[in-house]
Amino acid sequence: MVANFRQFTLKKSKALVVDRLPALLAVPLLLGAALACGHALAAAKDKGADKHVDTDSIISTISASERTRPFPVGEKLAYFVNIKDGDQVRSPFRVAFAVTGMGVAPVAAGDIHDTGHHHILIDMPMPADIKAPIPFDKQNEYQHQHYKHFGNGETETLLDLPAGKHTLRLLFADHNHVPYYISSKEISVVVLDKPH
Ligand SMILES: [Cu+2]
């Protein structure tokens, strides 16, 4: 009885395969159609994206993991997470940053040991006076932005810089804006003209 059942199922399954052959052949065709649909969808999405301000407009072939370099444990330095020297960008562009070996705290939290907040120096050398607080830009400054304070403990920002080459450097400072001289390397980015 068992053998008979097996024969039956074998026969049945063979018959099924033959019956389904046209269907099996149809699968690649369906897949092809689905892929074509996918391409059409992607194209439609791209069109939609044109209408928005691209806030992550880093024009670079390097991936995020390639930008990230391992640091020895305990080393204190600040670094840009998503941009690197030589990148071309369009304003406004997103800049993400981080610090190792220190905590990030808002200015309002006051004096907390081994914490501070980020700054970006734009087109400026490192300050010469190691005890002077980092200056502030005038309000609504566009052409001559030099000192960005992230006193709320921010770790990313949107920079809106005029077209041209700009140098950027992170400098970490305490709640009085006095630098710890924990900084990043200076990098240069080229801000491209806005498309018309
Ligand atoms: Cu500050």
From TrEMBL:
<protein>
    <submittedName>
        <fullName>DUF4399 domain-containing protein</fullName>
    </submittedName>
</protein>
<dbReference type="InterPro" id="IPR025512">
    <property type="entry name" value="DUF4399"/>
</dbReference>
<keyword id="KW-0732">Signal</keyword>
<feature type="domain" description="DUF4399">
    <location>
        <begin position="95"/>
        <end position="191"/>
    </location>
</feature>
<dbReference type="Pfam" id="PF14347">
    <property type="entry name" value="DUF4399"/>
</dbReference>
<feature type="signal peptide">
    <location>
        <begin position="1"/>
        <end position="42"/>
    </location>
</feature>
